[in-house]
Amino acid sequence: MSTYGINKFNGKNLMKGTLTADFGKHLLKGSIVDTGKTLTIGAKIKSDASFTGKAKFNGSRGTSQGHFFGKDAASLAGIAEFKNKNLNTAFGGTKNK
Fold it and tell me: For residue 54, what is the domain's CATH number?
């Protein structure tokens, strides 16, 4: 899924990347980046199409959560949260066509 993210840390720059969902293994993983900044997501997909797991922002560890939406889970939205609230990142994406 092509994915975009925004947070306080990156100001006006939009983070871009790819998250890959493996529904057979119930895993969501990938990263979104901006110059010098990388958010990595590693989450488990639940049967209700939600996901929860780990997040890492340039070495800081946090958590991620979100949900898939639409026909055949065509899109997702989520948040990565950290002790340093300035790193909290909202992200969303759609399936690559």
Answer: 2.40.160.90
